[in-house]
Amino acid sequence: MTDKRIFKASEVDSSKSGWICDLSGPDAVNPDPYWYSRWHFRTRQQAVDFARLVDNGTDPGYARNLVTEHDWD
Q: Using CA atoms, how far apart are residues 46 and 31, in angstroms rounded to an integer?
């Protein structure tokens, strides 16, 4: 099953590349599209790994560092 929190960045902004993991809750009316609730990643796998870590209780900032550790761009 596909995690609906993970989607291509181009779906929100056609000039963007990569993937987004949206952590805003299901009751969010209008989450800020680029800060706080949405995290950007180069690959889909990074976004999936990030979501898994956060779901298991890892701090989002630390989780992002873990999944992008070797992403030098």
A: 22
From 60, 62, 23, 69, select the one nearest 42 (Cα to Cα).
Answer: 69
H runs (alpha helix) in 1-73? 44-55, 60-67
Ranges of each domain in the chain: 6-67
pTM: 0.78
Query: Which residues in the chain belong to E strands, given as ranges?
Result: 6-8, 19-22, 38-41
24-63 tens-digit pLDDT: 766 555 555 444 567 889 999 999 999 999 999 999 999 9
The one-character DSSP state at 68 is T
